[in-house]
Amino acid sequence: MSKARLEEQYINEFRSQLKKDLDLDNIMLVPKLEKIVLNVGVKDAVSDSKSLQKVEEVLQLISGQKTVRTKARKSIAGFKLREGMPIGVKVTLRRKRMYEFLDRLINIALPKVRDFRGVPTKFDHHGNYNLGIKEWAIFPEVDYETAGKMRGLNITIATTAQEDEHARALLNKFGMPFRKQ
Fold first, then answer.
1. How far apart are CA 34 and CA 159, in angstroms?
2. Which pLDDT score is estimated for 147?
3. What is the structure's pLDDT at 181?
4. Which residues contact 76 (CB under 8 A, 6 or more apart)?
5. Each residue of 74-108: pLDDT tens digit?
6. What dihedral do alpha carbons 62, 64, 66, 67 form, nearest 10°?
7. What is the domain count for the chain?
8. Helices 95-104 and 49-63 sit at what angle, rounded to 10 degrees?
9. pLDDT for the residue numbered 15
């Protein structure tokens, strides 16, 4: 089984460079990608169950993998929401699909964002990175006619890094276009 382009670059080049740059003693301490989670909340699903089905189809096109419906944890009367109602869709990418998605995100999708000045540099203090995308139409797999309503998308990149600086260095090696401070 062949490896994704970014995965081969990580193994052959980036890992040893990161070990030297971060001044780590052991190669096992070098941060690596663990998983990427794509999540879409669908508030229309409360009144229209077909909208959730459409979001599932589009997210499957973007990720190349079957999605999972997320359910409401508690009831909220003001939103006509009951506990257990499906209100979102998510997919977790690992291994080859994760690296292929990250490659498409960095090199194809993000450059298509209007007035793009880079992604925020804020991490969650555990080495993980969250990125919110306003329109999922930046992905080449999404067709304007079949996608219906334009929706946002949350992308969580989980790494094995213990510090935010290590995770930022890892994503910089992959070519993540962070904003200039």
1. 5
2. 61
3. 63
4. none
5. 666 666 656 767 678 888 888 888 888 888 888 87
6. -20
7. 1
8. 90
9. 83
- Residue 62 included in any domain: yes
Look up the CATH number of the domain holding residue 74: 3.30.1440.10
Question: What does the chain come to in residues?
Answer: 181
The answer to whether residue 83 sits within a structural domain is yes
Give the structural domain span for 69: 32-174
In a domain, 3, yes or no: no
The structure tokens listed for 35 are 């998983």
Summarised one tens digit per residue, pLDDT across range 32-62 is: 888 989 888 776 655 667 767 777 787 888 8
What does the block give as tokens for 123? 């991490």
- Kindly state the helix (H) or strand (E) to which residue 61 belongs, with its residue range: helix 49-63
pLDDT of residue 48: 67
Backbone angles phi, psi at 147, to 5 degrees: -70, -25
The answer as to whether 23 is a domain residue is: no
